[in-house]
């Protein structure tokens, strides 16, 4: 495979991974809401959330493997684990490494969910809220296509989806908060 093909596939898998991770985060928020999402029952939303997370994880892995094989990217094994050591745009590449490290934490806790217990799983799973914006920042800062209008529209749609889900979750009639007493309300 040529260097150009590796670079194009590496970029494409990174962008597609961001899309799947956006779906996963958005549906993860929706799953916890206890409210139906369109006509899908809650278990179906949870299944799509898990599928999107798995697909995003596989695409991130492919993204890393392709760019590691690409001589232009000049990635070293240490660049996958220790952030901010890369030769090319160390800050932005380091954010990608940090996002990958956070993704590993989420994967490990998901695999050990039944051994860790639900409370520990949920606490550690909140790392996904940090993972997503770090991955987005990596794509915007290090991505070859970051300045192109189509990518900015794509990234904007990702931001709107997650922001909309967060606003929905933080709304006072959110199921988890329905029984909570709010200040100023009887």
Automatic annotation (TrEMBL):
Q: What is its main location?
A: membrane
Instruction: State the superkingdom.
Output: Bacteria
From which residue to which does any coiled coil extend?
none
Per the UniProt entry, the signal peptide is: none
Q: Which Pfam families match?
A: Ferric_reduct
Write out the entry's keywords from A to Z.
Answer: Membrane, Transmembrane, Transmembrane helix
Membrane topology per the entry is:
Multi-pass membrane protein
An example of a Gene Ontology cellular component annotation for this protein is: membrane
Which residue numbers delimit the Ferric oxidoreductase domain? 13-135
Q: Subcellular localization, per the record?
A: Membrane
Q: Which residues cross the membrane?
A: 6-30, 51-71, 91-111, 123-141, 147-168
Q: What is this protein called?
A: Putative ferric reductase
